[in-house]
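Subject: Transport permease protein

B.,
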Amino acid sequence: MNSTVLKTEARLFAREPGSLFWVLVSPALLLVILGLIPSFREPSDDLGGLRVIDLYVPISVLFALIMSGLQAMPPVLTGYRERGILRRMSTTPVRPSALLTAQLTVHGAVALLSAGAVIAVGRTAFGVRLPQQPAGYLVALLLAVAVALALGATVCAVSRTQKVATAVGSAVFFPTMFTAGVWVPVQVMPDTLRSIVHLTPFGAASEALDNAAAGGWPGWTHLGVLALWTALLTWAAARWFRWE
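Prediction pasted inline below.
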């Protein structure tokens, strides 16, 4: 039954052109637009010889996770609850938890697929090096996916309707974009601001991915911040979520 629910949710997601664009296409498109700026393709002494486009590959990866966790998933789950689908499922052999698990799996998988597309575009279009510490990059990426989905689940938990979920998700969306470094890369923020941003889930994720891309193991502090936020948000989502 669970595999049937998963396949159904995957097909439904594939039929949503808006979600497909914003989760799968827009992160890679953002990287392409930034890469077309000539100065972003030039090495900078202020960045230790790196180019701005090098920094924006991990940022675009996080953008994909944010879009999947905050913009795509919450309206779907709250819509199911608002229409009574979760309540009706509780009377069938397929429990509502199966639908929740399927949603998390689909959006997590799509987020990872989008992240892979961003890395591929960065490599083929702009010569950005592949992550030099692939194992560390994968660990940081999986933790970042987990925290993005946990944050999205928390938005679902505190939102009674689909419209509220969209509003709350949008309100959370912009601060997460800032801490992920979409407007200003975390690596070039002033020291005090950078220290504060590192305590946020996507600020820590940005630094962890950047370290792994450069060849080092992600800092245990950054991985710990990601794990702690994932645990706290998962607890909050489980505590406040209602099936009807």
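The chain is about 75% helix and 0% strand.

T.
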